[in-house]
């Protein structure tokens, strides 16, 4: 070991490669990864906080936007039937459409069965796992590299791991993303409808004043890729409905953003901010770069200590499910599975951890079109999501298998079609199980 | 079909954010290591059987807790029903070691009237060049709290089996001696399946050869 003096100090040595060690990060700007901008900011920031490279920023922001637009690519929009309904989003039409989508889907499922290799969802067995691994089976697992040093008595046949199914479906999703449903409506009809939807969006967005109500209705059933960036900005209130005011507003907001950076960036190494900065520093590499999307507004309750907001929402979900599907509810209760054990993450991460990223994006098209989409409607989506697995849930008769299933739902291959179905069902539930009618403004 | 096991132990894995709790558990239960791991939200659940002696299997149910402070109110609900725990720190992160004491205090408050058998785990021992905590001082701290100390690496699969299996054996001994007893309303230890309940012929044959003490 090192000498006393050295030992006292050795951990203070610079550890530039330690995960989570405090390092200078120059990526806290928008757009990131622009060496020119880095240089300018670095030099300019301490002395001349006000004005460097304005024009540059805008052009590189646009560059950034187009460079990263493929993050929105995965999966084509979307379901034609819902699209038509959205044109006049009144209850009857949507309800009728929801039913039609569900009906249509079950027919497609029927048609699809013979020609398709059984995916995990279609399998008759209640398995959350890849087909190669038998379900419901507890197995002895040996870490590959350690197996010769321990557990000498393992029998050879017992080595298949008890797998969690894809807990991070993003990579898989990226691989399968963009493949459209082969059994969807005839492609020409579909693309025709898509083209006309896209036209409607473009007309609306062109102004001079975008009708936000109309835009919401249109967006409910999914926003076509090319217009999604602008549509999200309008729906989230980031940019104004008036077309002429948009460039100036965008410029102002970006300026504000850079002002925040200049204001707070240097404070990151202050003692009081060490823990926060450390956590951020650790979390950023863990986020998929594709996941850098607009954050919804969330109440403070949700992300403060003890997260009372999130816990309350889990309780609300429980209450809702008990009314929607008493059998599932009782089954979970009987096996001592608590909603907090699986649904906490659903609420905390808005299902982002449960479905592939392109599904989350599609989901958020609708969340931004629904009144209180991210809070209230999300509850119904979660309820629909849980009940979606009722068959599998009811077949599991053991706490452990239930919880493993619910924490690792087999959604890795989900596409927009699945999300559309989920949303249609959620919408139906919202009307059928309304707890208070005034939730449904218009 | 369930395999036969003598006991079921519930374990909890705690420690600062990013010390490698989830990666350690994944290595143990799935036999693999992911370079990038999402932060745990709330509590994740894992399970695995271990064989502590030929024919003697223990079913482990493992609660993987989020290290981040804001999830504490969720995670602390799981102390009470745990019989064993792995308390992790990251040997390349001094602060995570300094927080070991706080973690023990935190559990002490919430586990009563039960107790958790803890092992102190110095994780990421493959990163020895970036070490900020010596083995000696970690052993000293562990001894002061009556814990064993072990250094592990999920990346290189060092001591991962041993950390879990040793803890399991220690708990098993305590159960056998009657120092830990199965109690109504406590999930820490449950007794296993009685062989004749199991219908799989293969399992029954296996168990008949064995002495279930």
UniProtKB/TrEMBL annotation, chain A:
Biased composition (Pro residues): 121-133
Keywords of this entry: GTPase activation
Database matches in PROSITE patterns: TBC_RABGAP (PS50086)
Residue ranges, annotated region (Disordered): 102-171
Molecular functions per Gene Ontology: GTPase activator activity
Cited SUPFAM superfamilies: Ypt/Rab-GAP domain of gyp1p (SSF47923)
InterPro entries, per the entry: Rab-GAP-TBC_dom (IPR000195), Rab-GAP_TBC_sf (IPR035969)
Top-rank lineage group of the source organism: Eukaryota
Residue intervals of the Rab-GAP TBC domain: 222-371
Pfam families cross-referenced by the UniProt entry: RabGAP-TBC
Protein name: TBC1 domain family member 22A isoform X2
Organism per entry: Neomonachus schauinslandi (Hawaiian monk seal)
């Amino acid at each position: 070991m090192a000498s006393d003096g050295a030992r006292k100090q050795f951990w203070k040595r610079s550890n530039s490669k330690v995960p989570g060690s405090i390092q200078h990060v120059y990526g806290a700007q928008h757009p990131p990864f622009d060496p020119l901008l880095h240089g300018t900011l670095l030099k300019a920031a301490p002395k001349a906080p006000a004005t460097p490279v304005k024009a540059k920023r805008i052009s590189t922001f646009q560059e950034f936007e187009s460079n990263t637009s493929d993050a929105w690519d995965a999966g084509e929009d979307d379901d034609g039937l819902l699209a038509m309904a959205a044109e006049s989003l009144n209850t009857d039409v949507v309800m009728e459409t929801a039913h039609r989508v569900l009906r249509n889907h079950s027919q497609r499922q029927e048609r699809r069965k013979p020609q398709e290799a059984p995916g995990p969802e279609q399998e008759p067995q209640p398995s959350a796992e890849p087909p190669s691994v038998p379900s419901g089976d507890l197995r002895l697992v040996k870490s590959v590299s350690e197996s010769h040093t321990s557990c000498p008595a393992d029998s050879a046949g017992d080595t298949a791991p008890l797998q969690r199914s894809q807990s991070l479906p993003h990579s898989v999703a990226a691989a399968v993303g963009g493949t459209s449903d082969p059994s969807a409506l005839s492609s020409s009809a579909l693309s025709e409808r898509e083209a006309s939807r896209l036209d409607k969006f473009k007309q609306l967005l062109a102004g001079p004043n975008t009708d936000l109500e109309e835009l919401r209705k249109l967006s409910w059933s999914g926003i076509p890729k090319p217009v999604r960036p602008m549509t999200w900005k309008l729906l989230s209130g980031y940019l104004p409905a008036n077309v002429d005011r948009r460039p100036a507003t965008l410029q102002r907001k970006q300026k504000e953003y850079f002002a925040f950076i200049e204001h707070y960036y240097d404070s990151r190494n202050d003692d009081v901010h060490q823990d926060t900065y450390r956590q951020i520093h650790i979390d950023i590499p863990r986020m998929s770069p594709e996941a850098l999307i607009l954050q919804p507004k969330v109440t403070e309750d949700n992300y403060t200590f003890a997260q009372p907001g999130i816990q309350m929402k889990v309780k609300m979900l429980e209450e809702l499910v008990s009314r929607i599907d008493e059998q599932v509810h009782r089954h979970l209760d009987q096996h001592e599975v608590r909603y907090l054990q699986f649904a906490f993450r659903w609420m905390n991460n808005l299902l982002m951890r449960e479905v592939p990223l392109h599904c989350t994006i599609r989901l958020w098209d609708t969340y931004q079109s629904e009144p209180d989409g991210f809070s209230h409607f999300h509850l119904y989506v979660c309820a629909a999501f849980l009940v979606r697995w009722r068959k599998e849930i009811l077949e599991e008769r053991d706490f452990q298998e239930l919880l493993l299933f619910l924490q690792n739902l087999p959604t890795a291959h989900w596409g927009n079609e699945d999300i559309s179905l989920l949303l249609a069902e959620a919408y139906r539930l919202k009307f059928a199980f309304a707890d208070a009618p005034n939730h449904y403004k218009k | 079909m369930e395999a036969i096991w003598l006991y079921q132990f519930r374990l909890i894995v705690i420690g600062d954010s990013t010390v490698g709790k989830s990666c350690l558990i994944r290595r143990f239960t799935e036999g693999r290591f992911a370079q990038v791991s999402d932060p745990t939200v709330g509590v994740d659940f894992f399970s695995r059987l271990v064989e502590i002696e030929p024919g003697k299997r223990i079913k482990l149910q493992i609660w993987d807790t989020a290290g981040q402070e804001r999830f504490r109110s969720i995670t602390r609900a799981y102390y009470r029903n745990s019989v064993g725990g792995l308390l992790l720190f990251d040997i390349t992160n001094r602060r995570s070691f300094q927080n070991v004491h706080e973690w023990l205090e935190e559990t002490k408050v919430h586990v009563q009237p039960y107790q958790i058998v803890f092992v102190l785990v110095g994780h990421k021992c493959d990163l020895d060049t970036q070490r900020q905590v010596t083995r000696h001082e970690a052993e000293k701290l562990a001894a002061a709290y009556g814990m064993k100390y072990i250094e592990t690496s999920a990346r290189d699969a060092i001591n991962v089996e041993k950390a879990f299996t040793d803890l399991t054996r220690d708990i098993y001994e305590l159960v056998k001696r009657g120092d830990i007893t199965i109690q109504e309303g406590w999930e820490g230890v449950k007794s296993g399946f009685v062989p004749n309940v199991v219908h799989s012929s293969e399992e029954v044959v296996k168990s008949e050869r064995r002495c279930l003490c």
